[in-house]
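Each lists chain and fold; for instance:
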Amino acid sequence: MDEKTWTTVIETRAADGRAIIFPYTAAVSATLAMLVFGDVSALSDSIKLALATFVVLGSLWVIIWWDGIFQDFAALQKSMPAVVASTPFGAVMAKAPIVVFRVVNLLVIGLITLAQVLAIYD
């Protein structure tokens, strides 16, 4: 892969990652605000189910989104142009533990989701 294409792909995938952070943070914050300031125990079972479904599916969406980005970064590591690989950034990029990032992403979002669902049904 040539340097220009590689750079464009990495910029695009990084922008994709940044694009999902605000909607996810807003959704988690809104759910947290409902749990802290609202009387969730007074909600009907169908409303609790809708809220829990929103939490789970929204989290799944973010996990899949970020996992795709991490997979692309792993592929970009392997197709790094020599001119990039010879730089300090290239050396760091080549050693980036993408699998660890994928696992941590899954764990963090999964734990946030679990905590929210447990709070909804508490």
About this structure: Residues 28 and 78 are 35 Å apart (CA to CA). The two ends are 52 Å apart (CA to CA). The helical segments are 3-37, 45-78, 82-85, 88-95, 98-120.
